[in-house]
């Protein structure tokens, strides 16, 4: 993990993803956008359970505004860590350094206002293609607008590592789960730990695809079923539901700084905390997972390709 970042912010090992607070998000979502009253209940469960880190983004609808309002209502904003992301640069700004700087600074200012924070603890580029403007974020660290900077990456581990090295990112956010182990198998988690780069692992349940009823899985994604059934049998043999297998598999890796999970209601957060506190998986269960042959195509395990 990024040792200096850990000591500076005292990040909890579990981070709440809050895209559902601002958008009806996720392939398994049936309830739409989470109501404000439910947001407050979810955050209260988090705070009582020791979760002090919350992931949001400028492009997550009203998520920043809702999160900031709820944390203020709970008198918790000054004792929490918020990870937010820069609004994606449009084509014109991405080609013009001056416009890019103006757009990035405007995005940060708007996030500060919506969240009610003078200094944003962690700010990431939401798209890898915007990362060459990292020096703009670095300048905002110097000015006190931001604490730490990094990149939210896609599924290409080689690209993520190159960007982390070239742009000197202190933080990487990477997707990884039981169905998509590209980053985990590439060794980038270990590399990040050895270079004191913090790793936030997202997409633990693959937007709920790992957990939803088979009959509800869209036809274009049903190719996951044979692999998912094998994983479900491993979970059953170990005496646990598939959700527990997925979450505890993720926290088994000591090189992950914090694990990002999203929820739609209070009970889901309670369940996640209960599973989280059961700790890492036994070695025999990990070995069984590693033995599962998984050759799923990118378009099935990459949410950005589902539309």
Précis, in short:
This protein is an alpha/beta fold and 307 residues long.
Look at the structure and give the CATH class: Alpha Beta
Number of domains: 1
Question: Can you write the helix and strand succession as a string?
Answer: HEHEHEHHEHEHEHHEHHEHHH
What is the assigned CATH homologous superfamily?
A: NADP-dependent oxidoreductase domain
Strand order of the largest sheet: 1-2-3-4-5-6-7-8
Q: Please tell me how large the radius of gyration is.
A: 19 Å
Discrete helix count: 14
Structural class: alpha/beta
Low-confidence runs of at least 5 consecutive residues: none
Number of strands: 8
Indicate the CATH topology.
TIM Barrel
Q: Shape, please?
A: globular
- Distance linking N and C termini: 34 Å
Major sheet: 8 strands, parallel, barrel
Q: Mean pLDDT across all residues, rounded?
A: 92
What proportion strand?
5-15%
- Reported CATH architecture: Alpha-Beta Barrel
Percentage of residues assigned to helices: 40-55%
């Amino acid at each position: 993990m990024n040792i200096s970042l850990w000591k500076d912010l005292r990040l909890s090992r579990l981070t709440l993803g809050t895209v559902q607070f601002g958008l009806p998000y996720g392939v398994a979502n049936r309830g739409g956008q989470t109501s404000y009253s439910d947001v407050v209940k979810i955050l209260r469960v988090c705070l009582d359970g020791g979760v002090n880190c919350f992931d949001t983004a400028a492009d997550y609808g009203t998520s920043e505004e809702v999160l900031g309002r709820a944390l203020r209502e709970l008198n918790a904003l000054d004792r929490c860590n918020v990870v937010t992301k820069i609004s994606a640069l449009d084509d014109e700004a991405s080609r013009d350094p001056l416009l890019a700087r103006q757009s990035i600074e405007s995005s940060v200012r708007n996030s500060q206002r919506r969240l009610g924070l003078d200094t944003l603890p962690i700010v990431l580029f939401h798209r890898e293609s915007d990362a060459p403007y990292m020096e703009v974020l670095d300048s905002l660290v110097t000015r006190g607008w931001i604490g730490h900077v990094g990149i939210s990456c896609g599924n290409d581990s080689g690209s993520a590592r190159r960007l982390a090295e070239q742009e000197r990112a202190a933080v990487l956010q990477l997707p990884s789960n039981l169905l998509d182990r590209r980053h985990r198998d590439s060794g980038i988690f270990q590399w990040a730990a050895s270079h004191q780069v913090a790793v936030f692992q997202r997409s633990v349940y693959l937007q709920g695809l790992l957990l939803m009823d088979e009959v509800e899985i869209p036809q274009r994604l049903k190719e996951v079923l044979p692999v998912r059934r094998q994983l479900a049998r491993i979970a059953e043999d170990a005496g646990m539901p598939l959700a527990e297998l997925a979450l505890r598999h993720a926290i088994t890796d000591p090189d992950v700084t914090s694990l990002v999970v999203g929820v739609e209601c209070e009970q889901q957060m309670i369940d996640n905390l209960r599973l989280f506190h059961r700790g890492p998986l036994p070695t025999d269960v990990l070995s069984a997972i590693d033995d599962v042959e998984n050759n799923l195509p990118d378009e099935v395990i990459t949410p950005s390709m589902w539309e």
